[in-house]
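Suppose a colleague, Dr. K., hands you the sequence of a protein chain of 323 amino acids and asks what its three-dimensional shape might be. Before reaching for any lab equipment, you can write down a predicted structure in token form. Begin with the sequence itself:
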Amino acid sequence: MTQPARDAYASDWLALVATLPVDDIPARMRSLRAIEALGAGIARDGVYLLPESAPHREAFARIAEDIQRSGGQAHLLVGRPVDTAGVVDLAALFDRSARYAEIIKTVESLRAGYGVAEPAAIAGVLAKQRRDLAATIEIDFFGAPLRKEAERVLAKAESLVRKLVGASADGGLASPEADGRREFFRRAWATRTPVNPDRIAAAWLVRRFIDPEAKFHLLGPEDPVPGNALGFGFPGATFAKGDGRGAFDALLVHFDYSGNPGLAKLAQLVRALEGSGDRPPEAENVETLLKDTRRRARNEAEVLADSEKTFDMVYEAYFGKRS
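The predicted structure, expressed as tokens, is then:
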């Protein structure tokens, strides 16, 4: 979403005044997630603010319509502070310093693994931090001072890790396992649409653990696979379904991640979402999140990108296991 011009901050603000549905918990959570994703400030319970702009007005209007359809109440207002001090107070609601500080802390904590851990695994964590940084910048309407520091720290770490990955590929730091994965770095990967939970989870695994610079092609049912792409999640693919297991399981086995407890639990969840195997308690919540993502997304690429965030959350928050 395009950020509003900086001189708009001293003029009009949008206010979404809402009473969220009480009985429809999924609808309530859907609205709160959508409001949070926009970076809206919370003036008080039920009053959410954004600097006025056409994209923000359109986004708030969509959320208001959804709240009303779900049985709640919502009104969209435009207001202007009566003095400059009021603008400063409102700006404090949008301070992203804590998010930048967390990114800096995470990136700097990886230093202990340089030259020890597999470079591709470190690169995978940095790729997630890069996505988190981009998302934070998108909602940093006032330019928090820590933004430049976060950009500098992340860029420096990425540069160092690229050298480590190169040294590993040249044999300088490579373990036998890493050496066998050279052909999977910076590759094109392809799967078919619609992207189901197994295909989404497989793409997440590729980007998080195997090929952080992966480029994904989403193919229709009859589209040919690009000649240089690694296929997954469909018959005839390099990593295909079979014996009741999906592409996610095939990747776990091929890259020897089956011993990772968090990924093993995630594999159980993916099989449940695909209709096979035992259904863990968290499956219903994850299924709701994926359905909500699909409802909001404009195309399959958005479904894939946004759903990967759900698997980040499940792996880190639900299972709390890291590679």
